[in-house]
Amino acid sequence: MFTKKVLATAVVSFGAATLSGVAQAQLEEVIVTATKRAQSAQDIPVAVSALSSEGIKDLNIGNFDDYLRFLPNLTSGGRGPGQSTIYIRGMAVEPITVMLSGAQGSVPNVALYLDEQPVTAPGRNLDVYAADLERVEVLAGPQGTLFGASSQAGTVRLITNKPDPVQFDAGFDASAGVTKDGSESYTTEAFINVPVVEDRLAVRGTFYNVHRGGYIDNVAGTFTTDPSINPDSAVAPGYARYEAADNSQLAEDDFNDSGYLGFRLGAKWFINQDWDLLVQHTRQEIDADGVFDYDPEVGDLEVSRFFPDELEDDFNQTAWTLEGRLGFLSLLYTGAYLDREVQQSIDYTGYNNAGGFIDYYTCTYSNPDYIVNYGIDPDVITPGGRECRTPVKGFIGQQDHTRSTHEFRFNTPEDKSLRLTAGVFYDDVEIKTQDDFYYTAVAEIGFAPNAPISAAKNISDATRPAEVAFFNDITRTEEQIAVFGELTYDITPKLSATLGLRWYDLETDYYGSSNFADGIFQGSVNTDRGRDYDVSGGHTDEPLQEDDIIPKVSLSYAWTDDVLFYGTYAEGFRPGGWNRGGGLDSINPNFPTVSATYGTDDVESYELGWKSQLLNGSLQFNGNLYYVEWTDMQVSRFDPVNVSILTFIENAADSEILGLEADAVWLATEHLTLFAAFSYNDTELTSVQGQAVEIAPLGSQLPLTPEFQANLRARYEWDLGAYQAFWQLAGQYAGDSFSSIVEAERERQDSYATLDASVGVSRDQWRAGLYLENVTDERAELYINTQDDIRRITTNRPTTLSFRVSYRY
Predict the structure, then answer these.
(1) What are the phi and psi torsion angles at 351 (to 5°)?
(2) 588: containing domain
(3) What distance lies between CA 130 and its chain's CA centroid?
């Protein structure tokens, strides 16, 4: 039956718990695999929250942005589908622009998993649509021993529904909605589970097609370069003429529409009583236009863009898991191969008024000052005055991600006083990046087509189009092997101790080239302009090697069967990497030369937590108090004036975080369930050692994390004749925060509160509901950024009303 008894998902971190159906007297047990064992979320000394499949439906969750609204210790920095970075417990540094994330982005400090495979990527976390998910698990705090690199602030795991050999099952969901001052949206989702051989072999298919209507307008306008940044003449002001760009052909209302199209096919073979094999393939395509942040100087939910903004983000993942028993050991081998292709074009016209040398690529050379400064051949100067041609500039990039992972692990019996989980993990990652920066004027003023420098190991040897003034052709690889284990011993029936260790050995390589247009020079002065990353600026053809041991120690005390206390010391790390063009002399002698590499940043975390079920199991109250020391923070900086390599990463600062998080779920009556959750993070910069990055002052708050966040939710369910009905109200609040840790870009982001409401009915296999999101049409300041060199604000979707109908066989 589609209407089920209550399933309340145990939320350890922030009100993510959900219920469906008619309330029972007690909250039901939720099983998670956060410790790489199947255990009750209430029995493990780990801060883990879980959103069930029913909870995902109750909250009308679809994509990545939707998860964050209901998990208040999660925040993000991002600018649209497939372009977000997750932060947990206040450990945030704003992400690098996606135009450079492949070439120069650091690895995120929160690991994202799709089932058993990590799918984290610099600046572009995999945005998997929430179709037919069993649950979403969020593990807060360092998870370095079991989940390794990039789990220094936590881990988010998307767990899919697997084939069931017991019974046939199928269902579909369809919805249609409209956004205030925006366009229409629709979704169709379906799944089918077929036991091919009863109790032995089953297959499951999941299919979805989602269209999200736009709500930001590309407004017709013009753009002219700023004469103070693109000077006409030092000796004769007014000497130049400036051409204006006009975007009338690109102007469009609601131009930021997006779509998710995908499927997942799986087969599970129960080989015998002890062994089973799962094979699963997932494919998804994201197609998005426009931008998801607006320019308040143009208007509310408005921008003026002069180059097409388009994104195609496709991935295929094939995964397999063999699980069974050998004697008293539970064994598991899992592997996966991910192939992801991203193609994106972005308007970059704002760079005209930010780039230190942009006039060189935009204006003609009739001014004698420029002939002297640049050594221009007199034959190519423009008589009668300097002309700054069309300022239209854009980015067209392609990233190809491949990732192969393998893990073998074993568990000793759960009912013994001494328990061990241990294994070995192998990870092989490759990111191929081709970034073409189009400066439309260069073809007009005489630049030669851009051919890559000959010495580099390039992805493509093709000469770039005549309008490409600069391009990256870079391959990044990361190969890692790790051995891990967690040993738990029951000192007494109530007191247990856990020791975890992980040894890793990681090699990071970086090769290819960055290339500058040949310009208008005649002769050999401008030959081989670019950087070969096997030889240039301190780079070599040898990979960067890092290895270490990551520990964890935990004590847990079961005061009663329903109350657990625990304390944990844990460490986490994020890999270092290569600086694009590092080692080249800085332009400004006050700024030292940036190193060719940057090192790991590291975390030490101290945590006291509790888990409890009270009032005969009708009230669940969990929480954690934690203190985090974050050292050698990896901070990125865009600096076209002082440092010759423009964008780089530096281990620039240390910080401390003191935080408290708690949540409660209460079955207040037979019909009413209440949810409450909050997080408080007191973050502070304690040391600034960066020499090239100009960091905010000591004592400053870390970016993109409010000190206080909370959400409240009430869900009421009752019988309405032959139907079961519900209403639900959900509110979220986030205090003010800061946009950046870099002083020049730092700006306060206002606090905000949002409200969602829904009503619906169900009968037999059918369910229907109305969902009103962002009732008050709040314009939240989620991320103020200048990544395209024009200040813009990433915001939430305006008021949206949708109708959803579901059928479950």
Answers:
(1) -65, -20
(2) 31-216+254-347+392-808
(3) 15
